[in-house]
Structure formats: structure tokens, C-alpha cells
Amino acid sequence: MFKFFKRMKTVVGSELNAMLDKAEDPVKMLDQFMREMESDIREAESAVAKQIANEKMLKRKYDDAQAIVDKRQAQAEKAIEAGNEDLARRALEDKKDHQQQADLLKESWERAKADSDHLRTKLDEMKSEYREMKLKKDTLKARAESAKTRTKMNRTMSSIGNDESKQGFERMEEKVMKYEAEAETSEDLSSQSRSLDDEFEDLDKSSGVDDELAALKKKLGKE
Fold first, then answer.
1. Domain residue limits, the chain
2. Which residues form a coiled coil (predicted)?
């Protein structure tokens, strides 16, 4: 179980970029990695709890056995003081049996305690690694979202020159320019197509004003 967690950390660490390249959705893959790590930690916590319970059980049995040893020793001394050597002998014989049992239990308990301490240390390391990877996951998720946004924006900007709306706008601009050119041309043609009668009519209008101006000057003696 601990080896599996270590392997998962290696995958998320050194091989993360390669897996993200193949992943359809990097954010979902990162969340999946974290769920697997969380499952490993729960499994480790369960294993540590069982080991601690086993350690405590062995300690309790050892304490009970050692308590009997101490009790028999005290009883043997009391029997000797009372002059009952046979009772003291039987107390010492029972003490010896319990001492052997206590020694075996102490050895088992010390081994179980060492295993518990080791598993506690490993569990703490797993939780620390999990926090580290969670922080890295949050950073990578933010980077992935930022990269997707930039990619979308770049694609939009690169396609804007071929956008139908822009092409349509350019067509309308060409039409307006065409209308303006036609209007200028029509004005030129209109000016060129004036008849001789129109020109003489303008001339007559101009002459009438000149005659009236000359008569006015003569009247006022301003000639």
C-alpha cells in the first residue's frame, strides 16, 4: 500500500506532463490523482490504527505478566520471612514461568511498537506529500485554465480576418465607394450635357442685369 502511494507520487511528479499531454481533460486527471492519494491515505490510516491497537494489546499483556512476576517475588519473600520455604519455592517456580511469558510478550510489544512508530512516520510523510501535491494540483489547474483561455483567444484572433462579418463589412464598404464614384461621374456628365440654349439663356440673364446697371448709372450721372 505504501509502495503504491510512492508510485502514484512518482507518476504525478516526474511523469505528470507526459500524462497530461495524453489526457483529454488535465483538470479531471489531476482530480483523479488526488482521489487515489486520498484513498491511499485512508487505507494507511486504517493499517496504522490496527497496528497501534495490536501494540497496545501486547503492552497490556506484558504488563499483566510482569505484574504477576513482581507479585510472586513479593510472595516468595513473604513466605521466607514466615519460615515457609516450600511456599516460597512454589511462588518462585510460578514466577519463573510468568517471567518467561513476560519476556516473550515484551519482545513482541517492542517489535510492535517499532512497527507502529515506523508506520506513523510513513503516514505523516504521506500526508505531507499529499498537501504538497494538492498545492501543485491547484497551481496546475490554474495554469491549465489559463492556457485554455489563451488558446481560445488566440484561435479567435487568428480567425477574425476570415470572419464572415468582416468580409461582409468590407463588401458593403466597396459598395459605398462605388455609389460615391457613380455620383461623381453623374455630376460630371450632367455638366457636360448642358445644351446651347441653356448657355445662351444664362448669357441673356447676365446681359439684362448689365443693361439695367448701365441705365441706373446714367440716371445718376455716374457714367
1. 2-162, 167-219
2. none
